[in-house]
Amino acid sequence: xxxxxxxxxxxxxxxxxxxxxxxxxxxxxxxxxxxxxxxxxxxxxxxxxxxxxxxxxxxxxxxxxxxxxxxxxxxxxxxxxxxxxxxxxxxxxxxxxxxxxxxxxxxxxxxxxxxxxxxxxxxxxxxxxxxxxxxxxxxxxxxxxxxxxxxxxxxxxxxxxxxxxxxxxxxxxxxxxxxxxxxxxxxxxxxxxxxxxxxxxxxxxxxxxxxxxxxxxxxxxxxxxxxxxxxxxxxxxxxxxxxxxxxxxxxxxxxxxxxxxxxxxxxxxxxxxxxxxxxxxxxxxxxxxxxxxxxxxxxxxx
Length: 302
Ligand code: HMG
Ligand code: MG
Prior knowledge:
By secondary structure, the chain is α/β, with parallel strands linked by helices. It has helices spanning 13-17, 27-40, 62-68, 84-92, 106-113, 117-133, 156-168, 185-195, 215-224, 252-262, 270-284, 291-301; strands at 8-11, 44-49, 76-80, 97-103, 137-143, 173-178, 204-208, 229-232. An 8-stranded parallel β-sheet has the order 1-8-7-6-5-4-3-2.
């Protein structure tokens, strides 16, 4: 199969990237981050998460962030919602897309959202109906699709089972997420191909954390089987507070650099993203975790 000629990159830095930061990041920095990402060309940015502030304190400013950003017409600003309380907040904040997030592992579902997979689907049913009524896009995310920090192995069939349930709730897009970055290319292809038997491949995405350095290889493997939507975080920010040891998402700069090399269109200005990576890393007081980003930034200074 030939590789897709263009891909959609969903920038998840403002949400997945920042949710695990211990230092409180002021809303105006988050707003500037989203605005800069918008200007760099992203058509879909995960900007907020309406979860319990006791569980994820960093995301408590989500309403403020959504109210403060400058939206580009046609761009999609997404927000995570675990239940109807989160949905109501996302609706009030004018999110364009709500993301229900479940897991392919029972143990992780309990740790992350305090309920079983079956219970989560029941909660999501109300959210899905409300999203449709309010004409919001609905995305479903499946954590631990390639392994679980508590349970270990996760079978391809258990991923397929959650794909079916999210499809039946009416999701417009479904994310196959490697929460702890343990997947390798062959296994990723097997999961994607199995998921594609249940849900249209054009609307399946790959969400790879880079804990074991496999994310770019896994993205390439996904391209080979026809996946054309990927998530990434500028500067490689990120991690899930309920997946101990998991590091950030694959760095957006690295993904765009690879896509450019492959002649695959992203619509995103790599040099602008490199600058954004340096901006947010400076604010956080550390070096960006993007090989391509740091190499391009160093070359500029030379
Ligand atoms: P719970 O304690 O079972 O909830 O948590 P509850 O319904 O019993 O409510 C307890 C309290 O939370 C109540 O407040 C509720 O009002 C409040 P109190 O009366 O005690 O003051 N509450 C809320 N507050 C604000 N917004 C809400 C909300 N819901 C309840 N939406 C719950 C269940 C799902 C709320 C909790 O477990 C939670 O917030 N979990 C979120 C965990 C999370 O955000 N994890 C990171 C995101 S997922 C991720 O990163 C993975 C992903 O990137 C893909 C991948 O890489 O795998 C997407
Ligand atoms: Mg994630």
